[in-house]
Design a protein that fits this description.
nine-stranded mixed beta sheet; 2 domains; alpha+beta; 248 residues; 22% helix; globular; Alpha-Beta Plaits
C-alpha cells in the first residue's frame, strides 16, 4: 500500500530535504521515525529537493508499507517522534501509481525580504534594512520570465540536468508594509534558480539593471551575467499542485 505524507518544515537546522552522508536532513528524520513505527527500514520519496536552509510551507512525500494504517493516529505518532521544526499535517492512502514527485504539475516558491530589522525573523527572512526598491520596475522585469523557457542563466553551475527548460506561469512581487515577497510558479525549477532570479531582480529594483538588460541576462544563458544568489533563509516552497488524474 502507498501513502502520501503532507508536511511542512523550517529548514534552518537541516541540510535540505534529501538524505546525505554526515548531514542532518528532513528526509532522514522522517525515515527514522517511520522505521520506529513500522519496525522496518522505510524509504520515502519527496516531491522535490530543497537546499540547506530552505523552508517548506507545503511538502509531499510518499512511502510504501504492507501495514494498513489508521492515518490520523499515525500522523500523531509521527509528530511525536519528529523535531518541532517538522510538522506532519496528514497521512493518506493513495493509489499504487501515485508519485509524490512525478505527478506534481507545478510548484510555487516565495522569497521573503524584511525591509526593517526584525529579531524574530532572522532565520526566515533576508533582512535589508534601509534599502529601497522600485517594486513596479521589478514586476515589469519579472513578467519577462513568462516569455522565456530556457533559464540556464539562473541555474547553479555543474548541475546534473538534461536541459534548462522550465515553464513559468506566474512571477510577481508583493509589498505589505515592510515585507517584500517574490512569488513564482513553474512546472519545474533548476537548482538555485529562484535565488538567482531574486538576486537579479533586486538589481533591477535598485536601478543597477534595466528591464531590457534583465531580459538580455535570460537570453545570455550565462550564469555569470545574472546577479548574486540571495541567502537560502528567505526561501519557502509554498505550494504543490498535482495532476487531477493521479487518483489520490
Amino acid at each position: 500500500m502507498k501513502y502520501f505524507i503532507k508536511l511542512a518544515y523550517k529548514g534552518t537546522d537541516f541540510h535540505g530535504w534529501q538524505s546525505q552522508p554526515n548531514a542532518d536532513s528532513v528526509q532522514e528524520r522522517i525515515e527514522k521515525a517511520l522505521e520506529i513505527l513500522l519496525r522496518k527500514p522505510t524509504e520515502i520519496v519527496g516531491c522535490g529537493r530543497t537546499d540547506t536552509g530552505v523552508h517548506a510551507k507545503m511538502y509531499f512525500a510518499h512511502f510504501e508499507t504492507e501495514t494498513a494504517l489508521t492515518t490520523a493516529d499515525f500522523s500523531y505518532k509521527l509528530n511525536a517522534l519528529l523535531p518541532k521544526t517538522i510538522t506532519i499535517y496528514d497521512v493518506f492512502k493513495v493509489s499504487d501509481h501515485a508519485h509524490a514527485r512525478f505527478d506534481a504539475i507545478s510548484r510555487s516558491y516565495e522569497y521573503h525580504i524584511a525591509l526593517e530589522n526584525n529579531p524574530f525573523e532572522l532565520e526566515t527572512t533576508w533582512q535589508l534594512n534601509q534599502r529601497t526598491f522600485d517594486v513596479n520596475l521589478m514586476n515589469e522585469a519579472a513578467q519577462k520570465l513568462l516569455l522565456h523557457t530556457d533559464f540556464k542563466a539562473f541555474s547553479k553551475s555543474k548541475t546534473d540536468v538534461k536541459n534548462y527548460f522550465c515553464t513559468i506561469s506566474e512571477a510577481y512581487w508583493s509589498l505589505d508594509q515592510n515585507r517584500l515577497v517574490f512569488h513564482i510558479t513553474a512546472n519545474r525549477f533548476l537548482r538555485n534558480m529562484v535565488r538567482a532570479i531574486v538576486g537579479t531582480l533586486l538589481e533591477v529594483g535598485e536601478g543597477k539593471l534595466s528591464v531590457s538588460e534583465f531580459e538580455k541576462v535570460i537570453e545570455s544563458q550565462n550564469r555569470s551575467e545574472a546577479g548574486l544568489s540571495v541567502p537560502a533563509k528567505g526561501l519557502f516552497l509554498s505550494n504543490i499542485v498535482y495532476n487531477p488524474t493521479s487518483n489520490f
